[in-house]
Design a protein that fits this description.
The protein is mostly beta strands and 230 residues long. The chain is built from 3 helices and 16 strands. The strands form 2 sheets. Strands 8, 9, 10, 11, 12, 13, 14, 15 and 16 form a 9-stranded mixed beta sheet that branches. A hairpin with a 3-residue loop joins β14 and β15. It is globular.
Length: 230
């Protein structure tokens, strides 16, 4: 598979679906599409800034929220797959278009959901890195942190893929979304006003929890390039 587009799904429990959907619509400057699916369980976040949508929500029967990927490919067909570390993702039909622009907020700073971070147990890390590099055809590259590697995003793709090695533990690979922003303090304040909570403040990122209980990060990376300044 060589993806033509990448979609991230926010998998939200039924009890927190409405709160989670409202939060992510506001955070991303998006309009929620009409519901679809046999039980109206799917919807798309349509970027108000234009461009091809790449974020969707799904109401699930799970007790906790999660995130999964759809990798679209030319002449593809829908199929549920699992990585070596137990992360469930989907192969899907061809998709693509213009990458949405960063959202401009009052005060002038910008932000964009632009990265999916795979949180990988230590014993699965090397295999998981090799798997995703081979699957996407993207170069596996180091980052400034020894416990993280990145896949160098193909031109025009809406999402980067970051692989983060957990300090300890086992079990399946999980994932969370990351936002890039030009002003982390202002962006975090905006999220707090929408009902999020701060879990941890790092040197270049703030880990937060959304109203549905899902973890995500706000980072100092450039929303245009996805890279840290300097």
């Amino acid at each position: 598979m060589r993806p033509t587009w990448i979609t991230a799904f926010l998998d939200l429990p039924a009890a927190s679906f409405d709160a989670g959907t409202a939060f992510w619509s506001a955070v991303t400057g998006s309009t929620l599409s009409a519901a679809r699916g046999a039980d109206g369980e799917f919807a798309t976040l349509l970027p108000d800034s234009g461009g091809e949508p790449f974020l969707r929500v799904q109401r699930t029967g799970a007790a906790v929220p999660g995130v999964h990927l759809d990798l679209h490919e030319a002449e593809g067909a829908f199929e549920v797959r699992t990585s070596p570390g137990g992360f469930t993702f989907c192969a899907n039909v061809d998709a693509g278009g213009p990458r949405p622009a960063p959202v401009v907020h009052p005060g002038g700073h910008t932000s964009l959901v632009d990265q999916l971070c795979l949180d990988v147990p230590p014993d699965a890390y090397d295999a998981e890195c090799a798997f995703w590099a081979d699957l996407t055809g993207w170069e596996l590259a180091p980052t400034s942190a020894p416990y993280m590697r990145q896949l160098v995003r193909a031109d025009g793709m809406p999402l980067r893929i970051l692989l983060q090695r957990r300090d300890e533990g086992s079990g399946p690979v999980t994932a969370h979304l990351d936002l890039a922003t030009t002003d982390r303090e202002a962006e975090v304040a905006r999220h707090l006003g929408l009902g999020a909570k701060i879990d941890f403040v790092g040197g270049r990122w703030t880990r937060m929890t959304d109203p549905a209980g899902g973890v995500y990060c706000v980072t100092d990376r450039d929303p245009g390039t996805g890279l840290l300044a300097g």
